[in-house]
Amino acid sequence: MNLVLLFKEDFVDPSTVVLRGRRFEHIKRVHRAGVVDELTIGVANGKIGRGTITRLDDDGVEMRVDLDRDPPPALPLTLVIALPRPKVLNRVIASATSLGVKRLFLINAWRVEKSYWSSPRLADENIRAQAIIGLEQARDTMLPSIETRRFFRRFVEDELPEIARDTMKLVAHPRVDAECPHNIGEAATLVIGPEGGFIDAEIASLERIGFRAVSIGARILRVETAVAALIARLY
Ligand code: SAM
């Protein structure tokens, strides 16, 4: 936790917060912080600054809050990922969020197992919790929008053209020769496939609406590694 993310309900007055639970335990056990120590804090969807500890006991931690700067800029990237297995989902959300992704769609695809859609990890509270972990990691405060879409074709034909309008449209696909571009310096929409990869018909649907299939080399990467490698390459 490189930043303690604060929410409206943490404030007991305009410049004081009291934290209990996970953040309190982390401050006590990992930061091993005490009274007068300073921590980097940020307000959800707001500014970043310093929190000075004014009280710490068994009940919780109280901090005086001083906010003075903006969070890092967002990536101009919309990420569309075929729903990964539940175990991987948390890591993908936290990692994409820590890299600055602010718009993420988790979609169905032929090779996404149906059972993944009934995982409790898809609950709004879990998705939000993972995004918060990513923000705390990267010292960011801006919560991403994360949505799910159960129907590949409906999403690709009815929604994706508008979502991806005026952006570079890429689908990561290890089975093509075309190289993924570097340092593009512009907005993009990037589609990433499931563990078993996209089937040809799915790639063809994406190509019909202007997406270009690109590869980052002969090594086939796990979804979470591919997300990080592709984002690093594009930006
Ligand atoms: N056997 C699958 C295939 O050949 O498509 C492998 C899928 S891979 C585990 C999961 C997703 O990560 C892929 O659909 C793709 O979007 C992305 N990916 C992994 N390695 C990649 C690479 N070298 N180039 C481009 N995309 C890659």
Please provide a written account of the structure.
The protein has 235 residues and is an alpha/beta fold. It folds into two domains: 4-69, Beta Barrel (Ribosomal Protein L25, Chain P), CATH 2.40.240; 77-234, SPOUT methyltransferase, trefoil knot domain (Alpha/beta knot, 3-Layer(aba) Sandwich). It has helices spanning 22-29, 86-98, 124-138, 152-163, 200-208, 223-234; strands at 4-6, 11-13, 16-19, 38-43, 48-57, 60-69, 77-82, 103-107, 145-149, 168-172, 188-192, 212-214. The strands form two sheets. It has a six-stranded mixed sheet with strand order 1-4-5-6-3-2. Strands 9-8-7-11-10-12 form a six-stranded parallel sheet, sandwiched between helices. Helix 2 (86-98) packs across helix 3. The longest helix is centred in the middle third of the chain and has 15 residues, at 124-138. It is elongated. S-adenosylmethionine binds next to helix 6.
